[in-house]
Amino acid sequence: MNWPTKRTNSYPAPWNSGLLHRSIDDLLEDFFGGFGIEPQASVVSPRFDVSETEDAIVIEAELPGMDEKDVELTLQDNILTIKGEKKREEETQKKNCYISERSYGHFQRSLQIGSNMDADKVDASFKKGILTVLIPKLEPERSKARTIDIKAA
């Protein structure tokens, strides 16, 4: 058998082109969130519960670690939009060790509300990481039934 004395690139083309290194870098960046100094922003997916009572629609959003100043609530054209940004910074200092971690995330969720809702009386409160939005229903209009006289022609 004739063995080559000089090493030759007998690997397929993608391995020669540096694709392997780029793939590994992409994999590590996805797994560890990047190697740069700047923190990576991510999408937070808070849990939303929507329920209906006889008088209102109630929306509860679980937003642990957030304050009311981190959340924005808007209502336009029967669309309620809840958006916010979660920021967490943690520093640990021990004898010969200093660790600083930061994480950021944002979310936005829009919900279509019915036209029978009283948009002027929406109420929102924030307590212990739970945002509660109460959207009252409009009073149903009473039908104005009347008798119409029929005239002979």
UniProtKB/TrEMBL annotation:
InterPro entries associated with the record: A-crystallin/Hsp20_dom, HSP20-like_chaperone, Small_HSP
Assigned protein family: Belongs to the small heat shock protein (HSP20) family.
The protein's name in its UniProt record: Hsp20 family protein
Domain named SHSP: residues: 39-153
PROSITE patterns: SHSP
Matching Pfam families: HSP20 (PF00011)
Tree of life domain: Bacteria
